[in-house]
Amino acid sequence: xxxxxxxxxxxxxxxxxxxxxxxxxxxxxxxxxxxxxxxxxxxxxxxxxxxxxxxxxxxxxxxxxxxxxxxxxxxxxxxxxxxxxxxxxxxxxxxxxxxxxxxxxxxxxxxxxxxxxxxxxxxxxxxxxxxxxxxxxxxxxxxxxxxxxxxxxxxxxxx
Length: 159
Prior knowledge:
Blueprint: H1 3-27, H2 36-48, H3 53-59, H4 64-76, E1 80-84, E2 92-96, H5 98-118, H6 124-143
Antiparallel strand pairs: 1-2
């Protein structure tokens, strides 16, 4: 297989695997768990610290307006706190509260426990490969630039 063909084949296999794993991890969440958007916001604040609503929206690939209600609900639930930005008083900074951290850790813990149990049948090398793959997938998700639509014409392409 040529390099481009190999990458597309591996990309398709990875997409299917990640989608299936994500579906299973969602199924392992308790019925009273927070919505995916709320967990995503809490997770961002957990990993990156205080952030503006715009920073969170960009990192989560959403429009800030789409998360306005999520931010308000998390604030009403006492899971995040809002304060004025020290740089721009017109902007606000959101931060994870101790209660928010506890809720997020509990939510992640249930899924981490399921996944760790599911990996019990793997050997040490397989577990290390999964750890390496997880690090690489995280890097791809955080740093890879968006790809144009597959049907869009590319520069220099011939019809």
